[in-house]
């Protein structure tokens, strides 16, 4: 099924049990960013090595983060959504 057949909707990667939606609020340098998570927490998120050179992350990007279970104010970024995908998530009410 192509994008046009179902009204422009794409099947997007949704968060697993241990992941939450987040918006990048600040670039901290040294492969770290400040994110505002959907659960209301501000966290320092780490960009993993597998994403550093392949995926560019900028302020206001919508990402999936995996909060650390031993240190709740930190997280790892596991996915970045394209702008069109982020718009679709907002339209469908997954993120504000």
UniProtKB/TrEMBL annotation:
Keyword terms: Initiation factor, Protein biosynthesis
SUPFAM superfamilies found in the cross-reference section: Nucleic acid-binding proteins (SSF50249)
Domain S1-like: 8-82
Molecular function in Gene Ontology: RNA binding; translation initiation factor activity
Gene3D superfamilies: Nucleic acid-binding proteins (2.40.50.140)
Physiological role: Seems to be required for maximal rate of protein biosynthesis. Enhances ribosome dissociation into subunits and stabilizes the binding of the initiator Met-tRNA(I) to 40 S ribosomal subunits.
Protein family membership: Belongs to the eIF-1A family.
Descriptive protein name: Translation initiation factor 1A
Protein's organism: Haloplanus rallus
Gene name of the encoded protein: eif1A
